[in-house]
Amino acid sequence: MFDALSERLSGIFASIRSKGRLTDADIDKTAREIRLALLEADVALPVVKAFIAQLKSRVKGTEVSQALNPEQQIVKIVNEELVEILGGETRRINYAKQPPTVIMLAGLQGAGKTTLAGKLASWLKKDGHSPLLVAADLQRLNAVDQLKVLAERAGVDVYAPEAGSGAGDPVQVARDSLAEAERAGRDVVIIDTAGRLGIDEEMMQQARDIRDATKPDETLFVIDAMIGQDAVSTAEAFRDGVGISGVVLSKLDGDARGGAALSVRHVTGQPIMFASTGEKLADFDVFHPDRMASRILGMGDMLTLIEQAEAAFDAEQKEEMTQKLMEGDDFTLEDFLAQMQSIRKMGPIANIIKMMPGAAQMKDQLEQVDEKQLDKTTAIIRSMTAEERRNSKVINGSRRLRIANGSGVTVNDVNQLLNRFKEAQKMMKNMTGMMGMGGGTKATK
Ligand code: GDP
Question: Where is the SRP54-type proteins GTP-binding domain (predicted)?
Fold first, then answer.
């Protein structure tokens, strides 16, 4: 799965490897190639469009990290967008407050529902639950027997109509299974429902009837990852026909192009919760969007590198900031501005400050910085001469007026800024004093 897509993406990334920076034309070309790669992997068009729009706006926008080279930046953003279309966070089962939790499986015939029922039961059992499998697929010959075999392998009980009574009522079986679960002390009920080769109204009605009779906590839509472009219409039909709360991808071990996997979350609006990767009971796991994305990119190493580069860059910035904070008497208007600007970039400045005595007030002050204020502050400080920035004491009345006019603000704004700066400067001095780090620290720099 995803081999072709992975290969295409690697090629695209390699083609920008040697670039020092990306022009708009480079970005457009890269975006076009990624678009094609996704389409060829059978990803649904609306999903591709959303993906590319997001990618372009992020790459062209201000979100350019100085820590990364152009290739790393693109890989990082593609990775994050892949995680996003795969659902972001890993989604866990919503267990009922009052057991049994009812999990209903829906999907086309052959999607892998019955197999999945067995796998899920086995997985839940290992997780400390005591599941009951319910054979409400009375349509397909052998489905009941298949479920019994799976249940035995998984070491769980199965609730099924008597053998040979294929004409039984699946809704009744599903309803009765809840009482059976309660009687037998089972905390999760997994209901296997009938599928058809294509979507039809009778099947949807039956699924709705089972749903209404059992009020599932989860309705999982099982979809064959090899299904290709049909994924969208099938997923929409189940979303609208039965209502689903999560998706299970089956047959991820196949060599299909993987488009269904990348489209289904966007189309259904529901998260992929589990993935099935083979015919054995153990070929099954919780679905992790981030792991799947890095598998598609096939760039585990580079992703680690990106993380490390960013962390190192952040650490360097923090180090510089800490240094400045410690040298209270060096603290100038330039530093004040730089500090405010970095607050936006690196939220965790609060962490540095937290480590310092007397920091609470400082933190409050830093948190008050909003973007407009920051623009204003920048304009004001930029209108000062180098001497004024270095030594704010020289800024008298006439200089204040000049600065106000130069930066298009009022004298009052300039006064306020200088007052805030003085406060900050005082706090710096206090902190330096408390830490026993007088002017002497400068010599050790
Ligand atoms: P149902 O009609 O939805 O209940 O589908 P089944 O559970 O009977 O599965 C249909 C076929 O797909 C069976 O031959 C299964 O062994 C096979 N199958 C199910 N899940 C997987 C999987 O994850 N990988 C592979 N390779 N085969 C699977």
Answer: 271-284
Global ipTM: 0.98
To test the pocket of ligand 1, the residue of 120, 279, 280, 284 to mutate (highest count of ligand atoms within 8 Å of its CB) is 279
| Residue of 104, 109, 113, 115 best suited for mutating to test ligand 1, as the one with most atoms within 8 Å of CB | 115
Residue 275: count other Cβ atoms within 10 Å of its Cβ: 23
Pocket, ligand 1, Cβ cutoff 6 A: 107, 109-115, 195, 250-251, 253, 276-279, 283
> What domains sit in the chain, N to C, each tagged with a CATH number?
3-85 (1.20.120.140), 101-288 (3.40.50.300), 317-444 (1.10.260.30)
Note the pLDDT tens digit of each residue in 244-271.
999 999 998 887 777 888 899 998 999 9
Q: Is 108 annotated as a binding residue?
A: yes
Q: How far is the CA of 224 from the centre of ligand 1 (A)?
A: 8
Q: Looking at residues 287-292, what average pLDDT do you find?
A: 89
**pTM of the shown model:** 0.70
